[in-house]
From TrEMBL:
GO terms for cellular component: cytoplasm; plasma membrane. This is Dedicator of cytokinesis 5. It comes from the Eukaryota. Keywords: Coiled coil, Cytoplasm, Guanine-nucleotide releasing factor, Membrane, Phosphoprotein. PROSITE patterns: C2_DOCK, DOCKER. It comes from Esox lucius (Northern pike).
Amino acid sequence: RGVGPMFSGHVSKKEHEKSIYNYDSRGEQELSLQVGDTVHILETFEGDKRGYSSYIHLKEAKVEGTGQQEIVIPSDVPLVLELGATLREWAQIWHKLYVKNKTTLFRGVQQMAYSLIEYRSQIVSGTLPKDDLVELRKKVTAKIDYGNRILGLDLVVRDDAGNTLDPDCTSTVSLFRAFETASRSIDDRIQEEKTRLQNLEMRRQSLFSTVHTYSLLMNLKNFVCNIGEDAELLMSLYDPDQSEFISENFLVRWDSMGMPKEIEKLNNLPALFTDLSSSDLIRPRLFLVCQIIRVGSMELKEGKKHTGGLRRPFGVAVMDITDIAHGKADDEEKQHFIPFQQQLIMSPLLPSRVIGENEPLTAVFNKVINTREVNHKGQGLFVTLKLLPGDLSQVRKDYPHFVDRTTAIVRKMGFPEIILPGYVRNDIYVTLLQGEFDRGKKTTPKNVEVIMSVLDDDGNLMEKAIFPGAGYDGITEYKSVIYYQVKQPSWNETVKVTIPIEDVGRCHLRVMFRHRSSQDSRDKSEKPFGMAFVRLMKGDGTTLRDGRHDLIVYKVDMKKSEDVKTYLTLPGTRAELEEKEKQTGKTLNNSVIPLTKDSFQIGTLTCSTKLTQNVDLLGLLNWRSNPEELEQNLQRLMEVEGGEIVKFLQDTLDALFSIMMETSDKDTYDNLLFNALVFIITLIGDIKFQHFNPVLETYINKHFSATLAYMKLSKVLNYYVGHAEEPDLTERLYSALKALKYLFRFIVQSRVLYLRYYCHVLPSYSDADKYVDKSSLFSDTTFFAFLNVFDPVELSVLLTKFIESIPDSQLVRQKLGCMCKIVESDLFKQPECRDVLLPLLTDQLSGQLDDHSNKPDHEACVQLLSTVLDNLDRKDVGPTRVHVQLIMERLLRRVNRTVISMSRNSPLIGHYLACMTAILKQMDDMHYAHYISTFKTRQDINDFLMETFIMFKDLMGNIFPADWMTMNLLQISVFLRAINQYSDVLNMYFLDQTHFELELWNSYFQLTVAFLTHKSLQLESFSQEKRNKILNKYGDMRKTIGFKIRDMWYNLGPHKIKFIPAMVGPILKATLVPEPELRKATIPIFFDMMQCEHNFSPSRTFDMFENELITKLDQEVEGGRGDEQYKILLEKTLLEHCRRHRYLSQSGEELALLLSSLLENLLAYRTITHDESPELRMSCTVNVLNFYKEKKREDIYIRYLYKLRDLHLVCENYTEAAYTLLLHAELLEWSDKPCAPHLFPGDSKHVWTQQELKERLFQEIICYLDKGKMWEKAIEMGKQLAKMHENQMFDFMELSQLLKQQAQFYENIMHAMRPQPEYFAVGYYGLGFPTFLRNKVFIYRGKEYEWLEDFSLKLLSQFPNAVRMTSTAPPGDNICNSQGQYIQCFTVKPVLIVPPQFKDKGVPEQILNYYRTNKVDQFQYSRPFRKGAKDPDNEFATMWIERTTYITSYYFPGILKWFEVKSISVEISPLQNAVETMEMANEKLSNLVQQQACDSSISVHPLSMMLNGIVDPAVMGGYTNYEKAFFTDSYLQAHPEDFESIEVLKHLIALQIPLLADGIRIHGEKSTEQLKPLHNRLLTCFQDLRERVEKHYGVITLVSCQCHFGGCYWCHCLPVKLPSFKAVCTLYCCRTIHLGLIPFSPPPPQATPVALPPLMDTPGPPPRSRSFTFPFPMFYHVKPGLRVCF
């Protein structure tokens, strides 16, 4: 936001615009804009914004504040503003999810954000209808709440309109309930989402437990099948396990061209299968079946002479929709393909093609269901399916885009789970089952067609009464499918018969049977051969019973069969025939119409809300026709099956109350009517029919009209209550009490209706008493209804007396529930009524919540209390101050103690906390003062404050979920106000010397610090938007309580010393809160503590304070508190105060600097703790533990040792982990002294002696050393332990194990493979590195098989922005002082330090190898460079070496894999370089020859390559380069000081010959046929080389001897460690030469020391001694022809 200078001219009205594009400024006078930025236009130049109109969009807004405090609030709908804020917040999280590669959540947030953007555009468009807008608001808020929950954001609660609830305008209890409801709703949504992915069965059960009626939407998109004739598709729901159809048919007619008959419905033929109950959908299997009926000729062939219009079975299509019905699959866009299975039909012309088919279509699709094998050849149906909750009306309301007037409504063949009043249905389903027909004169069975129609008693056809399927109008005559030449056809075709209710009694079904011929000419002559009928209603008025009916087939006599009057006198079914024959005693052979031998069965199912098949229920419904049987019918009503009653619930209730009204002047039927009503109400209360409760509610509220019913019902109820002791009435009274809720509803509603239509006057208490007995008032759900009948105050008195008359220990829950309903009624809103009721309520609650109460009903109590508090916190209830005071006096302490005693896991704890918060919120200052005055003694106040402080600390932010931010902040703000009130009480009653309470003050400080540091108040951790909301609503509550802590501390005066060191930690927590003003106010408390301890301490120190502060500072910083600003402010503040103090200036300054240093290390450690690099974490850990080691804080030091060990174990640095633990072991003694607590490991709860703990540590260290292959160190540790077991503990069993372990370690040293680690020098240059790395060089110990490139890549991965330097030379100041990161990495060679015990002895290579890379602190790196001009003939002459020796501060290995170094550089001349090169070559050759000689299994290829490189140096030229460079006269003249070195170089060249000779000999022994040519070549080259060397440099011969090594004998003694340059020089300085040979036993007799004369005449002082000792005999050729034996 800003004002560009280009906007100049006169000042116009303020405008605010939004940036709709990004814009990068091109000059100082332009603004850079991002999409969404707000631009405040202060001035315009003649209305022109100079080109900005394309980048910004004018928006209406209001501005609050000015300058920096200016807040621009767009004039959008609140929900739109919330959407924008939510999207901005989600966008930040979305970006973080992308960076962290959390793909699943990232995509989920993306989809939700896209949905919100779409919703926002719809709302902003302003084009949505009001209803759609309401629904869209619900979707938006649900989506926001769900997204906030899965992203860990705050839960937002809203009112019914979707607006965010303001805690200032909402009662505490209402806010809590809103949070609880919203949270539960989101939890359900998340659980549904989880179960959808993980456990779909649970989701299905959850879904079906909440909704009772469902609808299945199906849309037929296409039908692909080559029929060639018209077709009918009959689709229905089918249960294969029960072999029953659930729904009627959905009919679609298809033409011969493969298109629907209604071409406008192409690709869109929707049908809604409705009235499905949860029991229908949870069937184990549910299928959508489609029967395809071909309409045309008898068989599929052309020809005009063939009969047309015949309905013939063609095939089926079956789809398993169980998953969709169970809620496991829900994708309305997915098109499902249902494969088509054609029925194989018997052909009259080609009987050979018969495969036993002509099965009924039901049998065909049952086979398909069972086998699941369909040879569809690409033919079938394409449908979409979606399960919708709700009945037809609900679905039409909720999903108008799915269900419209073109959607066919397919009814369930049965009733929905709940039949609401007004639900009218009158359907009779008739199923043509099967028949058996005689052939007659035909040779083959008939092709039977069944023709069904509905007629009345006069023979008139009922027009369009038969519905073959939903989607089409009814037909008058239904013709069945024809099965070709089947004697026992089975149709299983179901049609729906729908006729007016008044016509059912005089209607019947007539069925005609006709043979159909395939030839048209024959077919016209065919007449019906049989007829059957059945009445729809029996003579007693009941409907035809459901089930199978075996109809009598009469022979057709055209005259008589069409005469309805004639055949209706005959029996229609076999059952009627048997009954009639039983009555007459005669068989009906000579009937008016002859009977045939044929048989025919149908099935019927009546779905009617007006027709019943129960004669007893029918008798009651038609009571006026037989009033003399009324008493009998009322008694029989209670024997009727419950399902039949609930089906006709409204009609049954209407009948009962009609009887009641029409017999109001008599009491004959009063008891029977009352009992019948109780029976029905009890029936509805049964779990089987509990879904009908809404039906009863609806009936009472909308359909009940009996104005005099209250008189009869109350009269009978009073009679039952008054005669309860009579045995006959006890059971009836018990049933009546269970039905009391709805009995009172009827009574009250009747009385209200009576007053409405007759009196319009409310009765007095005495009048009401005539109708309602006081004892019958007790009901927990009906009191609110009496408000329309009684005077409010009188009713309040009545209720109070009634409840008080019930014993305290009886009907507790019912009493509390009753009182809760009273409070919820309008009665409690009136102040006068509250004056009467509230004392009763508080007395009852106080008694229940009393400490001595026996098993109080906490749930009912909190429900009542929360309802009371909720109502008192409303704006429309009048004055409440007195009522709040009453609750405070009677219940506050009770509620507090209830909360204290309640488990924190109790589901009621949140409710009680909300009630406590509500009470405290409604209390004003006078309430607090009055409440304290009610305590009788100072000790009572002390007890109250103590329990309150402890309770507040325990409850604050720990009960409500963390995402209930508004609720938590409200609770905290209320607690803050209470704490401030109680602070004054502390100062008033408990500050003077006499009444000072240390424990109480401690509790106060603990509470206030916990308040100050509570996570809900740490604004820095919130987004800016959330921070602003909190500040605007509550301010920074931390400052308020922080300043209060400061004031209360300084108020303590001489009592301060009592809080040191206990209060150091809490005050430290307060000072660490990152709020500058708060820190400045509280840090001086530290100086006050120092001063206080200094003054009261005999030694005039503040050691307690210092130790406690260091301990707590370590804990707090590690826990995430503290920062660089705190370090600076702490040091500055303490230094300022200490330097002004007379006695603390020096010691205080030392402490300030010490704390600053500690903070620096701790902050570095914490910063790097979360780094992915374990190496950086280890470095910081070592820095911190070294600090504590210096300060002798062993407790903290040990804690960091174990942190370091854990880091090493994660990285599998077992050696370093062992050395780390060794530091702990070194703090312990081998004694039986008990361990001090601070010496225990952090995870140990065992009490150890020092010896036990040290032994345990040694065992763990040895284990780690074994894993790290550091067996030498493990043996050393084991020897110490073995010595203790042998000499002090005398545990020989443990000693034997240790010795066995050591033996294994010795064997490992000699035989196990142990790769030597590489060492790397790493320099970190540049200011971009942390301080502990910046411009420093470290030596790193690599892992096994870790080479330079691998190590470098790992290093650079830790610092992805660093640049690897290519040069190994030290960098200049430009790099060291740059802001970047530069890493220099190269390999260094450790300098061997031979242990003293190995000096002058032959040591095996396996033993020496350990010391080459371990117990080292010096490393060398040689960098070649040139001095002078390059010699083109010989580059070795000018090749100098810069050797850098790095010395580390610690030996390797140690507690780290790296240590910082200091370096020393030395320049080495080309001649010295040559000597070292020859030394290394000879050493390498000697080692390789020894390995090949000792182990025959080693491959010979390495030896081949090395020998070939020496004897045939094709490229490098070999030693001849040295001859050219150093062995010339000109070089000796120029460098006379190098004469001795030249001689040494010559000797090294000569020494190489015997080594090569042994190598070639071994090579010849191990060479294969493939290597023979190479070996021959090597021999030839070696002979030439040998001749040249021995000619110029003499002969050196190594004498053979037999040696035993490694369990084998070999016959040549080879040097392992050849003389170095210094060793060779000892020929002239008289030092003993150590060649490091392998020892052998016994030494040959020739190996005796000899004294040698000078080898040559050389200038200079004579040598001091010329005695040389060699451990083996060798011949050393000094001059040609002269041999000297050593």
